[in-house]
Fold these 2 entries.
Entry 1:
Amino acid sequence: MSCGPNTNFMQSRDLANHPAYTAAERLASLLLASPEYQHFMQLSGQIYADPQASPLLHQLKIIQSPYFRSDFDQAANQILAELHALPIMKEYDAAEEQVKVLFGIVNDIIGQAAGLPFAENAVASGSG
């Protein structure tokens, strides 16, 4: 089963009035309001203000320029290792993992109810 944004279902119905659409919007609101997601987003903003993380993020941005492409992998890996060793990044990584667990639980519940893996079938396969 493949349902993408261009399926006949979406073209043939007014989804804004469909109960599944309303439920999906409510679920999205609940996920965004969850403590896990809120903490993750708070840390996401704090990383850029962190005096240790900010310069490393800036260095990553610089080496992503086409002028630095030849050494990108080695330089990026070194900067990423330094970045992920910082306390704020460890906290960020843990928060990101909590959000992934939360989203995974939701995915599993929907998949069990639908009788098929939800997330992988929610994305258009390109098969028309």
Entry 2:
Amino acid sequence: MRGALRLPRGVPKNRFLTTPEGEPGLNYLCAGYKSFFEHADAPLKLLAEVLRRGRPAAQVMTLLAQADGRAEAGPEKVDRNAPCPCGSGLTYKKCHGQNRVFRDI
């Protein structure tokens, strides 16, 4: 079948090996899962620590940006005459930008 999604053989319930000691039942991750968990390990540990300290979870993004040596990405700038990002169909200045002070530069 052309264009069909090809799934890897062996669903997770069948991914078992024998341990080095000869015991059956060692579950293993495919390369994709392993790569994901290696990539997500540090940020997830940081998230756990932030939550343990009672801080907001959103602080993780600030901490990761600081660790990478870059400034935190703030909210996206919206031109006052552009459509409002909320999808109302109004311009930003007549919707969510009503209480903002706009300066012409």
